[in-house]
Amino acid sequence: MIEFLSPVSKQAIAHREVLPVGVLGKQIAIHQNSGDLPRLKNVRFALLGVRENRNDVNYMGGEVSFTEIRKAFYGLYAGNWSNDIIDLGDITMGETVDDTYFAFKTVTEALLKKKIIPIILGGSQDLLYAHYRAYDSSGKMVNMVNVDQRFDLGDAEKPISNKSFVGKIIIEKPYNLFNYSVLGYQSYFNPPGEIALMDKLFFDAYRLGKVTGDITCVEPIMRDADIVSMDVSAIKAAELSYRHSTSPNGFDSREICAIARYAGISNKVTSFGLYELDEYSKAESAAVLIAQIIWYFIEGVNFRVNDDDFASENNYTTYKVPVDEEILIFKKSNKTGRWWIELPFISNVNNKLKRHTLLPCTYGEYLSATNQEIPERWYKARRKNEV
Questions:
Q1: DSSP bridge pairs for 340
Q2: N or C: which terminus of the chain carries fewer CB neighbours within 10 A?
Q3: pTM of the model
Q4: Backbone phi and psi for residue 238, each to the nearest 5 degrees, phi listed first
Q5: Residue 57 backbone zone (phi > 0: left; psi -120 to 50: alpha; other: beta)
Q6: Which residues, 6 or more positions from 47, have their beta carbon under 8 angstroms from its beta carbon?
Q7: What are the per-10-residue average pLDDT scores of the chain (387 residues)?
């Protein structure tokens, strides 16, 4: 792993030295010298930069730098956290993009095996393909949640780009993707064919208005995710920086930080990536917002509660709701009050799917079921299994 990593920039290290005592920059271990990585023992989070953007459809030769983001992050104070953080530095551009993918996949896979959560600062979002491939050796199906204004499905027969990487994930072996969810998509940025394909594949898509109308709808979606990715283009330009974003619509700073916290609170999320990042030396507020998103994700992880142990009936309450010819079985945690719904139709299939026999849901979905409305996500999971 060490051969793929370059130290944190000298500018970020120098900035760290002038920071006050108690901030994150003075507490976390940092890869400062080439070949001398911080110890990984007892570490929970690893900050990792991937400075690759050559598959950006608008690539004009510019390079990616995470120095300003690191300076902003180092200057924040930790919450009441009990988990260690390290900064591994960056994976720089390989001779080819595939070389960068390989290095990224290898490093991420190694961190996952050590039960360390990678927090990824990435260039173009096609890097999510390599991010996802790091799970190949786990032998499990994975769920991916993408906070994005676009679906990024594209044409899998064409070369991969930051607008067409999901198609590659879907069709290339090994087939490990169980579900793909997009939060905050905006219809006018997506071809009608891709919107129809999302529905045909029984993937979950939530329009920007739905998510901003009730931000709590994000929680059960994140609760079932393994990989969470954020395209920072999903943030409105006024919040991020007009220099680096052109969309007047998107999530505001509070909403995107709340979404990051929901991702952290999920017991199943094992990696978190921020993509489409740029060089923010002339957009300090953008770097600070990215740093705060990372802060809220870490904050969420530190407040995780193990409430998904269903081995003992003392841990939950079961509710059975007849809907048409179905009997829907809901389970509510006695510890946290969070809800799940059983997916009995996949309980006896491939072992890769065993953990998906309970689908996180909301109390509202339980109430809807009592009014004879089958939850849409339950229905999609069933249809997906029948295909």
A1: 331, 360
A2: C
A3: 0.94
A4: -65, -25
A5: alpha
A6: 28, 70, 73, 85, 86, 87, 88, 119, 121, 294
A7: 90 96 95 90 96 93 92 95 94 96 97 97 97 94 96 91 94 91 96 93 95 95 96 93 82 97 97 94 91 98 90 90 91 94 66 64 94 90 74
